[in-house]
Write a structure and sequence with these properties.
By secondary structure, the chain is of the alpha/beta class. It has two domains: 109 residues, Beta-Lactamase, CATH 3.30.450.90; 232 residues, P-loop containing nucleotide triphosphate hydrolases (Rossmann fold, 3-Layer(aba) Sandwich), CATH 3.40.50.300. The chain is built from twelve helices and 13 strands. The chain has a seven-stranded mixed beta sheet with strand order 9-8-10-11-7-12-13, with helices on both faces. Strands 3-2-1-6-5-4 form a six-stranded antiparallel beta sheet, with helices on one face. α5 runs parallel beside α6 and α8 runs antiparallel to α9.
């Protein structure tokens, strides 16, 4: 059997194992004396194999062939998609592949879709805390405003947004919904999905300027990354569109503060913002350890108190204090503590995800 034939089978077995374990990512990490293969399961990386340098390079090359990448270009980062069939999944799985050169060779990362083996979820299936679900349902029923979803990579933001868009399409058949994504992770019936690339010709800024002339009623932006996109997003929300976007921030207060840092005027935020959802995933505790994850979330609805703080350019800490003083507000840690109290997770897992309480 040839080396490439061996690599073909090893890659098939690895992809099948990742799907069977419910992994979100596969890492092939080159080292000085070989390759480490790791899976991210329930948010935690674990080693599953170790290969010599030659076999490891063959595995990366095989993935590049599947992703239709240029196998002879080992000096530049490349990205692509791979499709495969796994024994535990009743349909082809489409995953994202990224390779990058390192001092020891090419490193490869495969991102699997969040819903491998599952049907698309609705809002009621996500097991979000009730205040968060109520906030999202309220946004689905409105006709304008901006919803910001925050959280680190792998915190379930896309799954939540997809469920929200499905809720809107179900409630209002025929509504014009356009999503700008980097990349498109799953096909959504009733939603026009456009794949953009921050470093390619079709950027968020170019696509958003054009899409606003396509008469959309609901817009989804994969991420607000710079002041230009932030300004366009705010203008879209101010002009009567419903806008859903993501933003890298730790909490609702810091998300609003980030918009201020990007040059968005306070009065624009107060006039357009519907609310902010901050989300994380925590592992569920079982008798044998951890298995599966559940979301914790904090939903902050815009209101007069937040608006007044914005107009005086309050910082993230003051915004967080204002939100925390609301009688019915539930923070991320309070949502997590509710799961601990019900035996669903434990304090150690909460500290791992949110950091130790101060």
């Amino acid at each position: 059997m040839t080396v490439m034939a061996d690599a073909r089978q090893l890659v098939e077995d690895l992809l099948d194992l990742a799907a069977r374990r419910g992994a979100s990512d596969i890492h092939l990490e080159p080292t000085a004396d070989g390759y480490d293969v790791r899976l991210r399961v329930d948010g935690v990386l674990e080693s599953v194999a170790r290969h010599d340098p030659s076999t490891g390079r063959s595995l990366v090359t095989r993935l590049m062939v599947l992703g239709q990448l240029l196998t002879y270009r080992i000096d530049v980062p490349q990205e692509g998609r791979i499709k495969f069939v796994a024994a535990t999944v009743d349909r082809p799985v489409e995953a994202r592949l990224a390779v990058i050169p390192t001092t020891h060779g090419l490193r490869a990362a495969v991102r699997l879709p969040a819903d491998v083996g599952d049907i698309p979820k609705g809002l009621s299936d996500l097991a979000l805390p009730p205040p968060a679900t109520e906030g999202l349902l309220a946004f689905a029923g409105t006709d304008s405003g901006m919803l910001v979803v925050t959280g680190p990579a792998g915190s379930g933001k896309t799954t939540t947004i997809y469920a929200l868009l499905q809720e809107i399409v179900t409630r209002q058949p025929g509504v014009s919904v356009i999503a700008l994504e980097d990349p498109v992770e799953r096909n959504l019936p009733g939603v026009t999905q456009i794949e953009v690339s921050p470093f390619g010709e079709l950027t968020y800024e170019k696509a958003l300027r054009s899409i606003l002339r396509q008469d959309p009623q609901v817009l989804m932006l994969g991420e607000i990354r710079d002041p230009a996109v932030a300004s366009l997003a705010i203008q879209a929300a101010l002009s009567g569109h419903r806008l859903v976007c993501t933003l890298h921030a730790a909490s609702p207060g810091s998300a609003v503060a980030r918009l201020l840092e990007m040059g968005v005027e306070p009065y624009q935020i107060t006039s357009s913002l519907f609310g902010v959802l901050a989300q994380r995933l925590v592992r569920k505790r079982t008798s044998e350890g951890y298995h599966g994850r559940l979301p914790i979330a904090e939903f902050a609805r815009a209101g007069p108190d937040l608006g007044a703080a914005l107009l005086r350019r309050a910082d993230a800490n003051e915004l967080a204090r204002i939100l925390g003083d609301r009688p019915q507000h539930q923070s991320l840690r309070q949502a997590a503590q509710h799961l601990v109290a019900n035996g669903i997770t434990d304090a150690g897992e909460v500290d791992r995800v949110l950091g130790a309480a101060t």
